[in-house]
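Hi F.,

I've been meaning to write this up properly since the lab meeting, where we talked about keeping a consistent format for the predictions we share between groups. The idea is simple: the sequence comes first, exactly as it goes in, then the structure tokens exactly as they come out, then a line or two of notes. No screenshots and no reformatting. I'm using this chain as the first example so we have something concrete to point to.
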Amino acid sequence: MLKYIFYCRLLFKLDNKYCKMENDYLYDVYMLCPVRNATDEEKKYLLEYKKKLEEKGFKVHYSAETPQEDETGGYRIVTDHCDEILNSKTVHIYWNPSSQGSYVDLGSSLIENRRRGLDILLMKKNIVRKIVDTQKKDWIEKKMEGFPKSYEMVLLYLDSIAEEETRISLE
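Output, unedited:
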């Protein structure tokens, strides 16, 4: 069975958990972004971003449009987001480091990136670049040893290796 799954992945770029073909995903894009504490400005940007993707024919999942009530203390929401990421071809991230849920969703996205090559793209990459510039400056000023590392640096790297077919810019 493992040989078959490996063969499927090589020939058809299939998902090895469900042996899905690329057109079997529920969503083209999962929008990873702040939900509970998103600012009005962020909400406006995210709705416009979603609209632009849909105008290009992409099926988009935007978590702010799904119910967030959860009697399990957040567990159901986290597992729902994991399933939605699993069922998406790509993830587009609006990064706000103060959004706790974004870290959980990023972890799920990274697993899928490693497992099946899920593309991870950044919305508003300039915000993340500014964060990284500040981090590097702090690193130098504190004369720290080794190499700087952060979630934001990982995001910039993942964005740089992602395919371009679902990339849009509203900047």
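Notes:
The first strand starts at residue 27 and ends at 32.
The radius of gyration is 17 Å.

If this format works for you, I'll send the rest the same way.

G.
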